[in-house]
Design a protein that fits this description.
mainly alpha
């Protein structure tokens, strides 16, 4: 009879959690979100459209300013802000970049891929945070160089009348960088609204109402109310970062105004994250 050898205890399984496991998962999730974002044709098309709007309107407005410069009054010339004019196209590009922010989130609900995303990454907030980070970095990587190109193109045109300014003069660096950050904030606001509403048309409509309709409606308020309300509107607050010179009495300081706009985006993103955890996909 063969003697039975004593059983050996099984080796303990090395833990897969901890900081290393979380870090690996986060990197994988970031890579997955980047793949999803860049593989959609609408991402490239929308970012290209935003870039064209920023540069195109900078050139158009500069040409218009140069063509009528000799007819301007002394007061108009004294209050002309060359750097602010060069980033005026941002106020049109916000429509494109904001819609892209909505689509970055709502498209997954429309196609049903959100279920696959949450299956692959059960930690919902990790997937959500990865999407926010990837989209914000991508948007800034596109809008910052585009704002620089728009500034340089505008100043080259304005130099014909000797009213161009340098990229490193005075408030100009803040205006150019602030223009790019303004667009990132609008894009994140759109993404947050999409996470809350889970519907493309509804989120885009809400975003456009906040950015475009509210400033129009505020014009119908009593004058003593309007000055206090206007400064808190997302568009007016965020646009303060692109203004030259000291702010007016009813305006936020440049970086404070941009902070208010990012505050709106943060509220939408946090609300979207809370609802993402509580609701079924």
């Amino acid at each position: 009879m063969t003697a039975l050898s004593p059983s050996r205890p099984a080796s303990p399984t090395p833990p897969t959690g901890g900081a290393a496991g979380l870090g690996t998962q986060l990197v994988s999730t970031l890579a997955a979100e980047w793949t999803k974002l860049r593989s959609v044709r609408s991402t490239v098309a929308t970012l290209l459209a935003a870039a064209v709007l920023i540069v195109g309107f900078a050139v158009l407005f500069s040409l218009g300013q140069v063509s009528r410069w000799d007819q301007l009054s002394a007061r108009s010339r004294a209050t002309f802000h060359a750097a602010t004019l060069s980033v005026a196209g941002v106020l049109f590009a916000e429509l494109a970049i904001g819609a892209l922010g909505v689509l970055a989130m709502s498209a997954e609900y429309t196609t049903g891929t959100i279920r696959a995303t949450l299956t692959a990454t059960p930690q919902r907030l990790t997937a959500y945070l990865s999407k926010i980070v990837v989209f914000a970095v991508t948007a800034f990587a596109v809008t910052l160089p585009t704002s620089v190109v728009a500034f340089l193109a505008a100043q080259a045109i304005l130099a014909r009348k000797h009213v161009g300014v340098g990229l490193l003069d005075g408030d100009d660096p803040r205006i150019v960088v602030g223009a790019a950050l303004f667009l990132v904030a609008v894009a994140l606001l759109g993404l947050g609204l999409a996470a809350v509403l889970r519907h493309t048309a509804g989120a885009i409509s809400t975003l456009f109402a906040l950015m475009l309709v509210l400033p129009i409606m505020s014009n119908f308020l009593p004058s003593d109310w309007q000055a206090n309300v206007d400064r808190w509107l997302p568009l007016n607050a965020g646009a303060a970062v692109m203004q030259q010179g000291p702010p007016e009495a009813h305006q936020f300081a440049p970086w404070s105004g941009l902070g208010v706009l990012f505050g709106y985006a943060l509220v939408a993103l946090v609300a979207g994250g809370v609802l993402l955890r509580r609701r079924d996909a």
